[in-house]
C-alpha cells in the first residue's frame, strides 16, 4: 500500500470511507511526522485534540454519517483562530493567545469531517513574500532548505511539499497562497473575494484578504474549496450571497475550444528564462489538450505594486490599531502611563516589517496625503479591474507565471524589502481586482526548484480554473514529484 503521507486528499478520503485504515491511524501517522518536522512549518501541535477529532471521525464513519472529507487531516495557517490551538499570526504580539471560537473556514472544514493536525507558520500578520518575517523563525523550503518557501503561507506550502500534511488552509492578500504554492511545487487557489468567509481570519487588509485551500492536486483543492465556500452574512459583511458549489463536478471537462489569454506584460523584461521555459511547456500541454492561446494585454500590470503597497498598508494601519496591549496580546511591563504602555507594547510586540507597513499606511491616510496617495490608488485599482474585464471579452482564462524567478536564498533580501515586494508583480493584479487565481505546478527551473503557472479566472469561475489545472495534472507529473529524502 502507498504510505499514508504519499496519498492525496482524495485517496485518503476514499481509503477512510472504505475502512482500509481508520482516521485515528491516519491522525497518529501525521502527528508523528509533524513532531519530527525540520522545516519550521509548525507553530503549534495538540496531539490530544487531534486524536479526539480523529476518534469522533471514526465514530461518524462507523455510524454511516461521514462527511465528504471525514477523517482527512490538514493544517491551518496560524492566521485563522482556533479553539484547540493557540493563534499567534506569526507575531510576538499574540504569543500564547487562545481564541474562544473557531474561524468559519476552520469550522466548515471540521463540519466536513477534517481533522486538524496543528497550526502552520506564516509571515507576521501575513505580511511577506518569503516567510522570513515570522517572529518564530523562518520556514525552510523542503526542495532546498537554504531557500525560502514563499510567503506569507510558507508553512502551509512547505508542510504539504514535505508530506507532513496532505492539505492546509492559506490566505492570499496579494499572492500569499499562489506564490508559496509555486515555490514549493504544490497547488493552491485563491477564490473570488468574498467567496469564502473571513470571519475569524486575523485581518491584514480587509478589502484584499481571502482564505483558500492548498494541497498537492487540483482535485484535492476542489474538494476542500467545496467545503469552504458559501455565504456567512451574519458574521462577515464582506461575504457574498453566492451558494456553495461542488467544484469537483466539472474537473474532467473537455478543454477543446478553451481560450487562454497570454498577457504580454507577464512575459516581458524581468521574467527569468527558466521560469518562462517551464510556463511555456505547461501552456504547450494545454494546447495539445485542445485549448488555444490568445495574446492579450493588461496594460496597468506594473502599477499593481505601488497601488497594492498603498492600499494594503493603509488597511493594515487601521486593522492593527486594536493591538494596543489593553484587551489581549502583548503588554509591555515597564511603562509609566497609558500612552507609554501603548507605545512600548506595540514597539515590543510588532516585528520590523509590520512596523514598516503600519507607518506607511498611517502616512498615506494622513491629512494632506490621503487624496494624493490613497484615493489615487483606489482609482487605479478600478482601472486594473477594468483591464481584466476587457481581457475576458477575448479569452476564458488568463495564464502566466506566478513569480519572476524561483525561490531565492534565505536572507538574500534581508536588507532590501522592496526586492520581496517586486516578487509579487504577477499575483497582485488579480488580488486588486478580487478575481480567483491559482498556482499549478508547471515544471522546474534553476537549481531544480519548482515553478508554478498562474491561472486567473473571471469572477466565480473557480470551477473552470480547477478544470484546467486538473487536466494539466492528468497530462503531467510535476505535482507528483517530491523533494529528495521525503
What does this structure look like?
- This protein is of the alpha/beta class.
- It is built from 15 helices and eleven strands.
- The strands form two sheets. It has an eight-stranded mixed sheet. Strands 1-3-2 form a three-stranded mixed sheet, with helices on both faces.
- A hairpin with a 5-residue loop joins β10 (437-444) and β11.
- α5 (154-161) runs parallel beside α6, α7 (218-228) runs antiparallel to α15 and α9 (304-319) crosses α11.
- It starts with 8 loop residues before the first helix and ends in an 11-residue tail after the last helix.
- The model has no long low-confidence stretch (mean pLDDT 97).
The helix content is 25-40%
CATH superfamily of the domain at 4-255 and 465-480: Amidase signature (AS) domain
At the first level of CATH, the class of the domain at 4-255 and 465-480 is Alpha Beta
CATH topology of the domain at 4-255 and 465-480: Amidase signature (AS) enzymes
Q: What CATH architecture of the domain at 4-255 and 465-480 would you give? A: Alpha-Beta Complex
Lateral arrangement of strands in the main beta sheet: 4-6-5-10-11-9-7-8
Q: In this structure, how is the largest beta sheet organized? A: 8 strands, mixed
Q: List SSEs in N-to-C order.
A: HHEHEHEHEHEEHEHEHHHHEHHEEH
Number of helices: 15
State the shape.
Answer: globular
Mean pLDDT: 97
> In whole angstroms, how far apart are the ends?
17 Å
Into which percentage range does the β-strand content fall? 5-15%
Q: What structural category do the secondary elements indicate?
A: alpha/beta
Q: Which stretches are poorly predicted, pLDDT < 50 over at least 5 residues? A: none
Rounded to an integer in angstroms, the radius of gyration calculated over CA atoms is: 21 Å
Count the strands?
11
